[in-house]
Design goal:
148 residues, alpha/beta, Rossmann fold, 5 strands
């Protein structure tokens, strides 16, 4: 799996690597970037999930989440936050991120589990949506005047 870590904090990068890569309960390839590089990476690499650190972007978290979703709405976003930036994480979920995780309270490996769950959930929703779309072989007539 490819995970984009959206942060400029080396502490967050190490925490995510410890949570996801070093726990050994899954195999992930992790790419890291700063805020400025994320747009370019999202356009050039197919990521399975995005980990967004709102402690870096608290003041601009609304804009960051909106930009991420506009670039790649199908990629699940997991927000990591500390207690002090919890309101920004909740706001990010309201805007479309899948979930948030308090990194100070997280047990080893829990982020990997969160990511697996949100990827599965997002894929299931997409599959159900694809099945619900009308077939191109069916013609629908809406608001047609009655034939006299």
């Amino acid at each position: 799996m490819q995970i984009l870590i959206y942060t400029s904090s080396s502490t967050t990068i190490k925490w995510v690597e410890d949570q996801v890569v070093k726990t050994g309960n899954c195999s992930f390839a992790v790419d890291t970037c700063s805020i400025a590089e994320a747009g370019m990476l999202l356009k050039s690499i197919q990521f399975d999930a995005i980990v967004l650190d709102v402690s870096d972007t608290e003041k601009q978290s609304k804009q960051v989440v909106k930009a991420l979703l506009e670039l790649r709405a199908q990629i699940p976003v997991v927000v990591v936050t500390g207690v002090l930036t919890l309101p920004a994480a909740v706001e990010a979920v309201k805007l479309g991120a899948e979930t948030y995780l308090l990194n100070e309270k997280a047990e080893p490996g829990i982020l990997a589990e969160y990511i697996k769950v949100v990827i599965t959930k997002k894929a299931e929703v997409a599959r159900r949506y694809a099945l619900a779309e009308p077939s191109p072989d069916i013609v629908y007539f809406l608001n047609q005047p009655a034939i006299q």
